[in-house]
Give the backbone structure.
Amino acid sequence: MEIDINWTAEMINEFRKCQEDIIYFAENYFFIINLDRGQEKIKLYEPQKEAILKVIDNRFTIGCASRQVGKRLALDTPIPTPNGWTTMGELKDGDIIFDWTGKPTKVVKAHEIRDDRKCFEITFSTGEKIIADAEHEWFTQHRSERAKGLSGSVKTSQQIFDTLSTGKKTIEPNHRIPIKHEAQYEEKELPIDPYLLGCWLGDGASAGQRITSGASDAHEMFYENLAHISNKHLLPHSNRNIFAISILKNTNGKSFVSSLKENNLFKNKHIPNSYLQSSTTQREELLKGLMDTDGYCNTKGVCQYYTIYEKFAENVKELLFSLGIQCSVTSKIPKIKGKEYNRIYILTFKTNKPVFKLKRKLERQQLSTTDFAESRNKFIYIKEMKEVASVPTRCITVDNEDQMYLIGKTFIPTHNTTLMTVVCLWYTLFFKTFNVAILANKEAQAKEILERIKNAYEEIPEWLKSGVKEFTKEQILFANKSKIFVSTTSIDAIRGKSVNLLFLDEFAHVRDEIADDFFKAIMPTISSSETSKLVIVSTPKGITNRFYTIFSNAELNSTKNKETANEEEEEKEGDGLEDIVEWAYFRIYWWQLPGRDEKWKQKQLVLINHDMELWKQEYDIEFLKYGASALNGDIIAKLKKMCCPPKYELFEGDYKIWFEPIEGHIYVFGIDTAQGVAQDYSVCHILDMTDLKDIKVVARYASNRLSPTVFAERIFNVIPAWGRPFLCVESNKEGMEFLNAIMEVHKYDNIIYYNMENDKRGYYQKPGIFCHQNSKYTGITNMKHWVETMEAVSVYDIETVKEFETFIRKENKTWAAQKGCRDDKVMALVWALIILEPKIASRYFDVIDYDDFGMPERIRDPNYAQALEAFQRSNRGRNIMESAYSDPAAVLFDIQMTPNLRFGEVDVEVEGLMAGGWRIL
């Protein structure tokens, strides 16, 4: 509807300024939701202003901008809501959750899921563990802030990790999070009175209607606390010190036992979700019933609740935390006169909230003189943090001033992302019948942009609004007949529609075939008007897409005079749109924004595992050539120069050895297993890692004819010559067959484990290296560090080096063999080197020193004695062999032999060896 305004001179003047100057409009009236500071007026910096003005002044504009950083939590993070529990991964726009005071707050935006972030597992004093990315923000108070009387400040997970502990003599947690919440659920229509249910859960018969009570409390409980329950009896017990309160009927007139059965409580004591998510008063009544029966308070106001059921203890813990009461849970097996009884679980807490109705207990709690405002119980402490493998994460934007919300089963408070939106809203506000189309690679992405525009529109003064006739997730139709609508980037997105401004978001990420067809389809729409505008903005993605073609042409043409450019344009082929010389372009680099300095860069590099190619593309906005080798050409050339024939070739050339084993050296086997059906190769690289500045691939076993179990047998026969090497085996289907054989049949146990640390089901906690997107990414970036950055690895096998030439980076930012090629030998090397990834190295080696990159610089084998003993056993076998044949290749084998081995040019007669004292095992 249109808006009637009583215009003042000041309004008219402001309206004119906004209409004439888009920058003035943006900086004075355009609001955005900032992840760090909540809702605020947009603050434009010079490169951003230049980008906006280029769009206004030009018909065709293309822009390239660097990556932004969000604050994210793992998708399985529990999130409490007024309607019960959900997870971070299930949240969607418009959902209602709790702010950090426990009040309902709206999820303005549930952002895209990412799986490329550095992640930490954070352990809180509540016992809860949460996985968050390094940039996720928390409001904490550290020791220095406490000393200065400051309430605290917002810090990232990385900053907390870097300052986790404090103290010299006694190490203590440095960071604590204030508890301010009390989850405000709506009042529920509960089937059983909450105080009565609490008493029955505490001291009631699980299969009956009686609640036992001590003689000193029975009359008070019967005549006062349960006075509202009319149909009940007080019965003496055979034990004079105990009474039984028999509840015949519930408050609704139903049989109490029937109510227990209907709500699955009969012989099944637990707190139903409807009670855990009831109003504050109802939950407080439930807690008082529990505490009056099985609760205790000492003279210092410390309260405890006792139960023999672990699951029930978790119920009570959730109840307490939902009320803003922090508790600890311990357990013990009580022993009386030497007799052990059932394990009991004890919940201990302190609060100034009354948790009793019984007078004697309540008085003891209230007589406590401890200043609760300063109590440690008003804070949740961050006890431990460790870096874990990256997992899918997401961030959300919430609609409250603090940008805080509650997460986790213990209700932990946590903190909580725009140029073309300004242009879109400005045009539709101040120009009649102006149609804007926003197209993105994904529909959700386009809708998010529209949501930002809608949020901005709602915040501007009424006298700037033109009124709206339609305000949906797909479009805004203004009273001045201007319109903004969204769609995916498809052929039919704007076919037949009148569009004054077409905005394409993240166009570099649209599949090539769609992008090409799309441009052909929009040509009639664009060419139908001499004033229609086309704006394309994206981060780079390689050099084989339409976005790169247009952007590179725009940059190229800007450096030439128009006459020269026109001559060249006549020679080009295409559909014509990217060849128009009037394209304006802009770049917005990370370093052009305040606060983005070298220190910020180093911080981001840590988050992306120092992946310089990723940095160049998404931060330095360079267009990288996909299909290029994972290693640069200079490194491959150096590796080729060091390639040479092996010293020994065994097993028909499958086993190649460049250097013989050396006593006391550290050897690692990197193994990638295949089916053995004459296609992919099973490969074992043997690396000498004694000196991490000079890592040598000393041997290689590769065959495409051996089944995984036979390959395991061959490798097991090779192992003794190298002492007690570490085996890094990819545990895919064939890899598990190899591991089962090497461990169960051959009883070899020096296996490296690298699995998903947040795998709660335990499904992936198996021997070997679980290959998924994250572990492969970690392995390859780690390999690039040692081979390319440090140049510490010598590879003498020309077949492996040739594989590197066709081992390329794909457009999905992973690496794999070029079509028609193999990467078995490369991946075996990747898995061997992964043992030097810092987290893995610290588990399997004694790391003496780390370098400036945080990578191990000097290592020692903690099982050196066992390795030396194994090597010497093999050496004794070698001496027998050398005495018989004087062939140095014998060093490679123990007395476990296989017929028809080939030592260089010497054929070994097995019968002759057996006659000399050898035996076949």
About this structure: The longest strand covers residues 379-388. The chain has a mean pLDDT of 80. Residues 419 and 722 are 61 Å apart (CA to CA).
